[in-house]
């Protein structure tokens, strides 16, 4: 089967595993979102390759290789470019969505690089560099 040349919001949502509201209310409002190429029924059509490029650039996080044995604070992880902010790490920790710190010396939460990389693999929209 040949991949569609043009896609509408329901097809985009299904292809990328998000709901239509995310596509219409978030992605299409981004300044880098591709321009519509036409219309199908009540939906705007978008070039499938342009949508894929947008998702790669703005939605999916690239894997960042951290030093496995180094301890990182939330700020260090943000600065390393893992794709999430230190505040999100701290909030996710309190909600049980981020692993417990490997070290808490002097009251500072720190994680080994291997722990943070493992946590990132389980997060939505994360892909390894070799995929």
Distance between the termini: 22 Å
Helical stretch tally: 6
> Low-confidence stretches at least 5 residues in length (pLDDT < 50)?
126-131
Mean pLDDT, all residues:
87
Strand content: 5-15%
Supply the helix-strand structural class.
Answer: alpha+beta
The percent of residues in helical segments reads 25-40%
Oligomer: single chain
- How many strands in all? 7
Broad shape: elongated
List keywords for this structure.
131 residues, three-stranded antiparallel beta sheet, alpha+beta, two-stranded parallel sheet
What this model shows, in words?
This protein is α+β, with helices and mostly antiparallel strands and 131 residues long. It has two domains: 6-60; 63-123, no CATH class. The chain contains six helices and seven strands, in the order βααββαββααβαβ. The protein has helices spanning 9-16, 20-26, 48-59, 74-79, 86-94, 113-121; strands at residues 6-7, 38-40, 43-47, 61-62, 71-72, 111-112, 126-127. The chain has a three-stranded antiparallel sheet with strand order 1-3-2. α1 crosses α2 (20-26). The longest helix has 12 residues, at 48-59. The protein is elongated and about 60 Å long. Mean pLDDT is 87; it is low at 126-131.
Short description:
The longest helix is centred in the middle third of the chain and has 12 residues, at 48-59. The protein is elongated and about 60 Å long.
What is the secondary structure topology, with strand pairs?
Layout: E1 6-7, H1 9-16, H2 20-26, E2 38-40, E3 43-47, H3 48-59, E4 61-62, E5 71-72, H4 74-79, H5 86-94, E6 111-112, H6 113-121, E7 126-127
Parallel strand pairs: 4-7
Antiparallel strand pairs: 1-3, 2-3, 5-6
Helix pairs in contact: 1-2
